Amino acid sequence: MSGLAVLEITPAVRSLANIYFEALQIPLKARADSYHLALASNQGIDFLVSWNCTHIVNGNFKRKIESINARYGIRTPIICTPAELMELEYDTRPNS
pTM score, two decimals? Predict the structure, then answer.
C-alpha cells in the first residue's frame, strides 16, 4: 500500500461532491459516496470500482454523473463492479 497515492479532498473535490450529493439525491447517511465519485472524477482516475450498486454502480446514476461532468468539463471514470472490471481486463482482444 505504500506505493499508492492518497487523494486529497480539495475545495474543488468538496464542491463537486456537493453537486453530486444534491443532483443525485444521495441520502445523508451515504454522503461519503458523493466524495468517492468526486475524488475519482476530479483526479482523472480511470476506474471507480465499487460493489455499491445503490449510489455508485447504478445505470441511472452513471448517466447523471456523465451529464454533470460534461457540464463542468470533467472526464467521467469507468464506474463498475470488481466483476465487471475483470471482464474488461480479459475482454481486450479484438473479436475474431
Answer: 0.81
